């Protein structure tokens, strides 16, 4: 993966793409690119909005995977999820239990590294409705990007 300085030449479309990949299962440095663009003069709130929308769209791909697996979907993605659930065992079961207990508001935790993806996939598996899913995932991921943007802007 190129460094943030190279990615920053892609501008907001590059941020959108990187954030969308980061919202799925691809580990890319969307926060570093957000900071690089703000350092380069991009308005912080515009960059934050672009990153948030891209990241939420990436998360929707995991949500759809969770819905598909919950309905008995197979194929390579279903097998991938089954392997991930087996390897993470208790963690995935804990996340699913929390979602069943707390419902969609627990998806605010989708911003947390590593377990955030588990929350997003589990949202689909346990059947969280699409609108609450989008609202709470956007809140969680958006707050993370707001924090990065404000921290970056404060350091200028």
TrEMBL record:
It holds the Pfam family VTT_dom. Residues 28-151 form the VTT domain. InterPro entries: DedA_domain (IPR051311), VTT_dom (IPR032816). Coiled coil: none annotated. It comes from the Bacteria. Keywords: Membrane, Transmembrane, Transmembrane helix. The chain crosses the membrane at residues 45-70, 102-127, 133-154. This is DedA family protein.
